[in-house]
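Thread: "does anyone have the structure for this chain?"

Original post by V.I.:
We have the sequence but no experimental structure in hand. Need at least a predicted one for the grant figures.
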Amino acid sequence: MTAFNNALLSKQCWRILTTDDSLVSRVLKGKYFPRSNFWEAATKGRCNYTWRSLMSAKVLLDRGARKIIGNGVDTRLCAYYVQVEEMASQGETSAGHNKLWGRLWKTHAPPKIRNFMWRLCKKAVPVMVILAKRGVVGDPRCPRCGEETETIEHTVLRCHEAAKLWKISPLRIDVSNEQIHDFRWWIEDRWSITNDDTWWALFMCISWEIWKAWNKWVFEHVQTDHIVSVSRAMRLSEEYKEANTINCFLSTSIISPKR
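Reply from O.Q.:
Generated one for you, tokens below.
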């Protein structure tokens, strides 16, 4: 999905380059590069999110253009494949990560929570550090504790409110002495310690409740009790497991017709 989005943005950059008489091209030129060309344009001060996105994709377009144009006889622009190749070279499609995704999707947790866990691993959750990089917010610090830059690792694991919740949960996770630099790598390391499906289902549900509590605090200034969050996570995990057990029983049962 990341490669596809970047490819679409690169395509828009290419249109700005090749159709400079279009309305969009003229508006952007008048606002962001009136005395230069698109290649020389850059992000400035309080430019909007659209322009920042185009500038981030321009780097990919530049790499793709140099890589594919060659001698100019057969000119093709294919940013998607350039992005995929670079992701592959960085290990995005490695066997280890594929194994992680397989384990994640097979965990007996609600689909929306498995999707949320996947987004955490892919850094696709709008925490402050990601929003700051995109120019949406100015301060990347955690709005809840104000002590650290709010990364995914901080929000879900290290923030003092999250840490308290993990300690009182049945999982008894203590991250105070751990160096957690990347959430996905931490997950992979944990999976090498335990692959118990019940443990992971509860872990995912608790992570989901932590995220809900964080949003409740940021947007409504309402503090969610830790015990309530843990209880909700346990109930969510158990109810999903029971529902799947019943469905499995019904699908495998043979009901003999009455004579």
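V.I.: this helps a lot. The mean pLDDT is 80.
O.Q.: and The CA atoms of residues 100 and 188 lie 7 Å apart.
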